[in-house]
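Prompt: I keep going back and forth on a fold encoding question. Comparing notes only helps if you start from a blank page. Show me how you would write down a chain together with its backbone fold. Please set it down just below, with no commentary around it:
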Amino acid sequence: MLALVLEFVAMGINAEVQKSGNETSLATIRKFSRRVQGAGLVKLVRNRRYFARGASKIVKKKRALKLIKRHAEYKKLIKEGKIAEPTTRGRGGHGARFAREGEQAQPARFGESTPIAR
């Protein structure tokens, strides 16, 4: 009995399938194709097909400065009340409204969470 083993190695990621029992060769190839696609190997190999030059230092610096400027402008708008403050996730966000053990829940004051419209 011939054992069909398909193996594909790319960037340290392995995808290996062995023929089991009375499984046909075509079914084994299909299973292998699904495993390779599931691991994201096809996408990875296609992305590396052509050389893409990295961004230069000047472009990286300009992009970083633009991001810093945009972030500062956003914070300024929040401070002025022109943009509603985003709700936080995690410890300080949704769970902060509910009382923890030994604490009393304080109701939210009217108008605190509503944005100021102009």
Q: What stands out?
A: Helices lie at 25-38, 41-47, 57-80. The first helix runs from residue 25 to 38. Residues 5-47 form one domain.
